[in-house]
Amino acid sequence: MMSQLADLLLSPDDMAAVDRAAAASGIDSYGLMEKAGQAVAASALRHFPEALRYVVLCGPGNNGGDGYVAALALQQSGAVMRLFYLGDPKKLKGDAARAFADCPVVGETMARYSPRPGDIVIDAIFGAGLSRSVPDEVAAVIAEITEARLPVIAVDLPSGLDGRSGQVLGTAFRAVRTVTFMTRKPGHLLMPGRDLCGVLEVFDIGIPARIVRAQANGMIAENTPAQWQADLPTAATDTHKYKRGHLVVFSGGATVTGAARMSAMAGLKAGAGLVTIASPEQALAVNAGLLTAIMLRVVDDETALRAWLADQRLSTFVLGPGFGAGEKARQFVLALSERHLVLDADGITSFRDDPQRLFDAFADGPTRLVLTPHEGEFARLFPDIAADNTLSKVEKARAAAARAHAAIIYKGADSVIAAPDGRALINANAPSWLATAGSGDVLAGIIGGLMTQGAPAFEAAAAGVWLHGVAGQRAAKGLTAEDLVAHVTPF
């Protein structure tokens, strides 16, 4: 059965703590291993009934123990199977040793395995129990199986994949299916781990939810509506446009106005009551000729902006899309330090030489700043964090959010949204075709539209990323940013 805890994400260390807590509570740990291995065998038989033989590769730890249980279950089902092991199985300890002793299948050393057409490989070598590059013997087997294009079912995680970061430790299997237990790990969602896991099954082996949730602490999860829906504003029957907030998007010069218009329209479609593009005089005619529901105002310099800010109804701003990097962007951002701001693209790059100046401006009070960096922009604002290869993408985003006192969207195929208090969400609903020019401008506008209605910065950022993914799914392959805007809808 599928686990009801599959929304949670636990690191390998946290999951090991769950196992220990379960054993300490009196739960039969070997019984849990039996359920895990049997779930793997059941998945193999269910999804690959055409296999000419099932090949189980067992490692030197508990992941190997799951493999021995799976091998026994496959043999008892009458399937043709072979077993190969890494190291000396007689040196196994604990439950893994018992699983080996209970398995009557005679195995051979892993080096003796020769792939055959029709093999279905069950990878029970390392799972989440690996923190270094795979040994040469395993790397050679992975290479042979990959070259033979054999289907691989991974137990817990494809061997060679780091469950904390989703990164490959030297080399790794590319599984067609991965069977994990109780809940997922960050490496199941972070790239390239998500691609290497194939179809993911989360199987409930009987550890009480209270034990699992005690270790999860709710700080890391997949980005889904369950994480932020309750914090989004809902429209009352007596609402009007002013109650839904006034969003301002800054335009660049006459030849670079399109990004701001797409961002502004996304904010309007996300629910903002009013949206104004703040345009330099030189771009006024271009913007005026292409706007209908969106208002327009001339804002040429910092003086004009500060005068306009006397209107307290201007609650949320988007700066960056097509704006241009430089001193003007810095002046505008610092003038907005008391308001809610989504800073994107050129706005981020403008602070590459002095990011602390940006962080200091938004350091006090509730989180008002949302930063949306891609890989390169993240490195410009947080060079030391970006360069630390010991950190996962989640850990980098969390460290950046704490330093900047901002909600961080560390963009990519596996965008991570982090809050200054340590909460982090990994987004998994974005289709690959969202990687197109102008897509980020639309995202910034959606987030601004949610914030101007009263959504907190982190929740607006997370909801914006999710809604952006939904819009991409609706627009389908071949979308342009204009198509994407047309498919933006509020939650």
TrEMBL record:
GO biological process: metabolite repair; nicotinamide nucleotide metabolic process
Binding site for (6S)-NADPHX: 62-66, 127-133, 156, 259, 322, 374, 441
Residues annotated as domain YjeF C-terminal: 224-491
Binding site for AMP: K411, G412, A413, D414, S415, G440
Domain (YjeF N-terminal) ranges: 15-213
ATP-binding recorded as keyword: yes
InterPro entries according to UniProt: Carbohydrate_kinase_pred_CS (IPR017953), CARKD (IPR000631), Nnr (IPR030677), Ribokinase-like (IPR029056), YjeF_N_dom (IPR004443), YjeF_N_dom_sf (IPR036652)
Key words, A-Z: ATP-binding, Isomerase, Lyase, Metal-binding, Multifunctional enzyme, NAD, NADP, Nucleotide-binding, Potassium
Catalytic activities: (6R)-NADHX = (6S)-NADHX; (6S)-NADHX + ADP = AMP + phosphate + NADH + H(+); (6R)-NADPHX = (6S)-NADPHX; (6S)-NADPHX + ADP = AMP + phosphate + NADPH + H(+)
Protein role: Catalyzes the dehydration of the S-form of NAD(P)HX at the expense of ADP, which is converted to AMP. Together with NAD(P)HX epimerase, which catalyzes the epimerization of the S- and R-forms, the enzyme allows the repair of both epimers of NAD(P)HX, a damaged form of NAD(P)H that is a result of enzymatic or heat-dependent hydration. Bifunctional enzyme that catalyzes the epimerization of the S- and R-forms of NAD(P)HX and the dehydration of the S-form of NAD(P)HX at the expense of ADP, which is converted to AMP. This allows the repair of both epimers of NAD(P)HX, a damaged form of NAD(P)H that is a result of enzymatic or heat-dependent hydration.
Quaternary organization: Homotetramer.
Protein name (Swiss-Prot/TrEMBL): Bifunctional NAD(P)H-hydrate repair enzyme
Organism of origin: Rhizobium jaguaris
Record lineage: Bacteria, Pseudomonadati, Pseudomonadota, Alphaproteobacteria, Hyphomicrobiales
